[in-house]
Write a structure and sequence with these properties.
CATH architecture of one domain: 2-Layer Sandwich
Largest sheet: 7 strands, mixed
Order of helices and strands: HHEEEHHHEHEEHEEHEE
CATH superfamily of one domain: Histidine kinase-like ATPase, C-terminal domain
CATH class of one domain: Alpha Beta
Radius of gyration: 44 Å
Structural class: alpha+beta
Shape: rod-shaped
Helix content: 55-70%
Number of strands: 10
């Protein structure tokens, strides 16, 4: 967009320069040519008048023989006249020779108005293209960048002009599909995690059986060789069961769905807050939720910019889901060598005794009844912040829920 502004400004400046140069060139040429002809014709008219009879009627009638001389009139010093004229003496009397003034010619005025009209039309067209075509494409560029980063929660605003309506609608459908795929992946991950936990629990039964068999054998409780053999077979069978469970656990856990990499760098705090502001101002406005970001002092922090934005977005989505839909605020404070980014929402229904568990994977509090979710949002936040040498914690001060991200300053 900035590049287009520069090009548009350059076009207008060049157009203005061409207009100015053309106008003054034409004016100079017209003035030079017309004034030269006027001087020649006045000289010829004077010669003709002086050679004639010298009567006033004859002198006044000479003007009709010369195209650039409008009329010849006796000179009256009391007469005020704004038309172009030249005073000459004929037979001891002064006459005014009225002639065509090149500056007042209609052609030059028409040229001036034409250039002004073209300049206005060009400027208006460039402004129209910038607002109706380039600005929507700029929004699309931001969307595709966020999709690449995995930020799928921000809907794409539809343009009223309609030129890109179908394209923008398709892009938003793609975003929704990716978001839905991400949700299904989270659900699949939850099922896989649940399977692992279930298998781990099932292992306890054969382990307990093996424990009983081994204790009985150690204490010589089986005097009959058949019973000893049966106990050994039981141990063998339960061992095979445990091996099967372990193989299934290994298979289910082969791919870690939360293998999140971070790339630490030095970034300005404003570069993290700005996208959050951009993402949620419009979204929360549509939801009629009051959203505010308190003033803060910018500084350098050490983190993975995209991952920190993702973590804060998870916190914002959490505030939208489990708040009362009235107010969400974001504030930045300072503590020693850290910056604290706090998200606060009203309408908290979470019990204070549950706060310590909200960062556990798949944990859903008592306030989550009837609200869809995977129970992984805050778990992901904590995992990302720990990898960035930071921290995240929560507290409840009814009816407010506070989620605070701690990041290191440079």
């Amino acid at each position: 967009m900035n590049k287009f502004r520069k090009i548009a400004l350059l076009v207008l400046v060049l157009e203005l320069a061409i207009f100015v140069c053309s106008y003054f060139y034409i004016k100079e040429q017209s003035t030079t040519g017309t004034n030269g002809m006027v001087r020649v014709e006045i000289k010829r008219a004077l010669d003709e008048a002086r050679k004639g009879s010298g009567t006033e009627k004859e002198i006044l009638g000479i003007a009709k023989n010369y195209p650039h001389i409008i009329s010849i009139r006796p000179y009256d010093e009391n007469q005020v006249d704004n038309r172009a004229y030249q005073v000459e003496e004929i037979g001891g009397r002064l006459y005014r020779f009225y002639y065509i003034d090149s500056a007042s010619q209609p052609g030059q005025k028409g040229l001036l108005f034409t250039f002004i009209a073209v300049f206005i039309v060009t400027g208006g067209l460039l402004l129209y293209v910038a607002r109706t075509i380039l600005r929507p494409f700029e929004n699309i560029t931001q969307l595709t960048g966020e999709l690449a980063k995995g930020n799928l929660s921000q809907p794409l605003k539809q343009e009223k002009s309609g030129y890109l309506k179908q394209f923008l609608w398709s892009m938003d459908m793609l975003r929704e599909q990716l978001e839905d795929n991400k949700r299904r992946e989270m659900e699949f991950a939850k099922e896989k995690k649940s399977l692992v936990l279930s298998l781990a629990h099932d292992i306890k039964t054969p382990l307990a059986a093996i424990d009983l068999y081994t204790k009985a054998l150690e204490d010589n409780l089986y005097t009959d060789e058949d019973k000893k053999t049966a106990a050994l077979h039981g141990i063998q069978k339960n061992k095979e069961d445990i091996r099967e469970y372990v193989n299934r656990i290994v298979e289910a856990s082969r791919e870690d769905f939360l293998n999140q990499e971070v790339h630490m760098q030095e970034v300005y705090l404003s570069d993290v807050i700005a996208p959050i502001k951009r993402y949620y101002q419009d979204k929360l406005s549509l939801l009629n939720i009051s959203f505010s970001i308190e003033p803060y002092q910018n500084c350098l922090i050490r983190c993975d910019e995209d991952r920190l934005v993702e973590a804060i977005q998870n916190g914002m989505e959490n505030a939208i889901k489990y708040g009362d839909g009235k107010k969400i605020s974001l504030a930045v404070s300072e503590e020693e060598d850290c910056k604290l980014i706090s998200i606060t929402n009203t309408g908290c229904r979470l019990k204070e005794t549950e706060v310590d568990n909200v960062f556990d994977s798949f944990y859903r509090g008592s306030n989550a009844t009837g609200i869809p979710g995977s129970g992984l949002g805050l778990y992901i936040c904590r995992d990302l912040l720990h990898k960035m040498d930071g921290e995240v914690f929560a507290r409840v001060t009814p009816p407010l829920f506070h989620l605070t991200f701690v990041v290191r300053k440079i």
